[in-house]
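Q: I have 79 residues here and want to know how they pack in 3D. Can you give me a structure?
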Amino acid sequence: MKKYVYLLQSLASRSQRYVGLTANLKARLRAHISGQSVHTAKYRPWRVTAYFAFDDEKRALKFEYLKSGSGRAFASKHF
C-alpha cells in the first residue's frame, strides 16, 4: 500500500504550512479542507503545494523530515 507525504499551505495565512503522512490522500485532504482536522481547521482554506508517493512506509516516514526545521526551510525554498 502506498504512503503519501503531502504539503499544504494556508490561503488565509500564507506563513502557515502543514506536512502530513497518510495512506489515503484524497480522504485526508478532504478532512483538512472541510475542517475535520484539529491541527489545520483554524487556518482554512488550504491548498496542496506538493505530495509524494512511496511504496515503502519507512521511506515515507524518513521523508516526513519536512516537519523539522531544516525540512521546513527546504520545503519553503523548493515548493
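Q: Anything worth noting?
A: Residues 3-78 form a domain with the GIY-YIG endonuclease fold (CATH 3.40.1440). The first helix runs from residue 25 to 34.
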